[in-house]
Design brief:
With about 240 residues, the protein is mostly helical. It has one domain: Intergrase catalytic core (hpI Integrase, Chain A, Orthogonal Bundle), CATH 1.10.443.10. Helix content is about 45%, strand content about 5%. The chain contains ten helices and five strands. The strands form two sheets. The protein has a three-stranded antiparallel sheet with strand order 1-2-5. Strands 3-4 form a two-stranded antiparallel ribbon. It is globular, with a radius of gyration of 18 Å. The chain starts with a helix and ends with a helix.
């Protein structure tokens, strides 16, 4: 077993002292109902995270992407001109695969706050070419992204503790917070389901008309307004976009 363990370390599949059982796929059944962060808790949490993990948290909380989808992003997936990104793959336990559903592969709108965070990360990161992973791991010389569980235990959970957040915080907390804020802001159900890219999206197509891009972008930006304390109205955003 020790030879296999050392071989995994040499090839960048594991780090020294990393639990190899993390590579074992867990049951898909959720053991806990995801918590929702208040806006002030989210902002406090971000201050205790290093730039890389903080940028991942911002993407998760302002787009609703699953952490596996965030890890699967490459710089070529980002359309800076259109302010959107293509989500075509996911990475789970070091394995690259497809997104969960066809709906998951639809373009995702990006708020300017999210774009700014990603541009800042690209400027500071080691791997910033179009073919690189957005969150490439230095431990694998950029060949693969890091493991979500490793980032959770080494950064996210300690940051939550430092921010005095007593809730159970995981990567899905950001997605659940995004969904809760969308609903709390009174967004159209169809817009919410398109932004969340739920697997049961098609069941709503018979009831709701297709959400237009402007409605989805405005709905997303209102979530960012709450998270980042940005006192901008939808009218102001539209006027700036038209200028």
């Amino acid at each position: 077993m020790s030879d296999v363990y050392q071989h995994a370390i040499r090839n960048g599949w594991l780090r020294n002292n990393e639990n190899p059982l993390l590579a074992v796929r867990q049951s898909a059944k959720r053991e806990h109902i995801p918590e929702t962060l208040e806006a002030h808790e989210f902002r406090a949490l971000m201050t205790y995270l290093p730039q890389k993990v903080r940028t991942m948290g911002v993407i998760c909380a302002t787009t609703g992407l699953r952490i596996s989808e965030v890890l699967g992003l490459k710089w070529s997936d980002i359309d800076w001109a259109k302010l959107e990104m293509n989500v075509s793959r996911s990475v789970v336990h070091g394995r690259v695969g497809k997104c969960k559903t066809e709906v998951s592969r639809q373009p995702v709108p990006l708020d300017q706050v999210t774009v700014d965070a990603m541009l800042a990360w690209r400027q500071d990161c080691t791997y910033g070419t179009a073919t690189d992973w957005v969150f490439a791991s230095e431990w694998t010389a950029g060949r693969m992204p890091p493991w979500a569980n490793t980032l959770l235990t080494r950064f996210l959970e300690p940051a939550a503790k430092s921010a005095s957040i007593t809730k159970r915080v995981g990567w899905h907390t950001f997605r659940h917070t995004y969904s809760t804020l969308l609903k709390g802001n009174g967004e159209d159900v169809k817009v919410v389901q398109e932004l969340m890219r739920h697997a049961n999206f098609q069941t709503t197509m018979n009831v709701y008309t297709r959400a237009i891009t402007t409605a989805k972008r405005d709905a997303q930006s209102r979530v960012v307004d709450v998270l980042m304390e940005r006192p901008r109205t939808v009218k102001e955003r539209r006027e700036n976009a038209a200028a």
